[in-house]
Amino acid sequence: MNLPIGPIAAVPMVCAAIALDLVLPLQRGTRASARRILLAAAVAGVVLFLVALPVFSPEHLVPGVLTATFGARLVGELAVASGVIGVRRLLVRAGTIR
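Structure (tokenized):
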């Protein structure tokens, strides 16, 4: 059975987007704090780890691999969130956004 890769690749992106939307405020004009953005990133990291878990082979379901994968998901999402916070601060300083 051959499935197209597009719908399969969309699953983690949609799940992470839903997690971000549930944590961040959805009101127009409401600015999320840096703490809230980092919390949303951490939640998205956990969701991405849980989405990836079913595709692990049984040989990789060992504590070391699971811990490393979980840590990498969290660190990666927090790094992206830190970049978002930094760019937002630069845009505010430049007067582009409020």
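The chain has a mean pLDDT of 90. The longest helix spans residues 63-94.
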